[in-house]
Specification:
Layout (H helix, E strand, L loop, with lengths): L6 H13 L1 H17 L1 H19 L5 H21 L4 H8 L13 H26 L1
Helix pairs in contact: 1-4, 1-5, 2-3, 3-4
């Protein structure tokens, strides 16, 4: 019997794959050459990279949930690259805009930049209000 994963773990993994597809695809391409020499090393490197990616991108409350999300990313990547059951276009269309779930708070690079710009604009607005009150 297969292990059951909860919906938030699946959603978090799909959001990460949809938003960080280029990085994941590059990783898998490079690890193919490593797998020709040492298959176990390639698997270990992939697993460590995915755990670190989930740590950076998602706010997970525990190591166990982080590992479950990383494990489901491995499964999704297998379905996309090897089995061709899922297309990346479907994932990007459905889960690309889903950023900010409670368990997998993933931020795309574009969202991170826009958040910084918004913070700067808010600070400038506050400074402008302070100057008006001083006059």
């Amino acid at each position: 019997m297969a292990r059951i994963r909860t919906k938030p773990i699946k959603i978090a993994a799909r959001v990460i794959v949809a938003n960080y597809w280029e990085y994941l695809q590059e990783l898998y391409d490079k690890l193919e050459t490593v797998a020709e020499v040492d298959r176990k090393l390639a698997g270990d490197l992939k697993w460590e990279f995915l755990k670190k990616l989930v740590d950076i991108v998602a706010e997970t409350p525990s190591k166990r949930i982080r590992n479950r999300i990383a494990g489901y990313i491995v499964r999704i990547m297998h379905q996309i690259l090897d089995l061709e059951r899922i297309s990346i276009d479907e994932l990007k269309q459905k889960y690309g805009p889903l950023i900010g779930r409670s368990i997998g708070r993933a931020m795309s690079p574009a969202e991170a930049k826009s958040a910084e710009v918004e913070e700067e604009e808010e600070e400038e607005a506050e400074e402008g209000e302070e100057e008006k009150t001083q006059e």
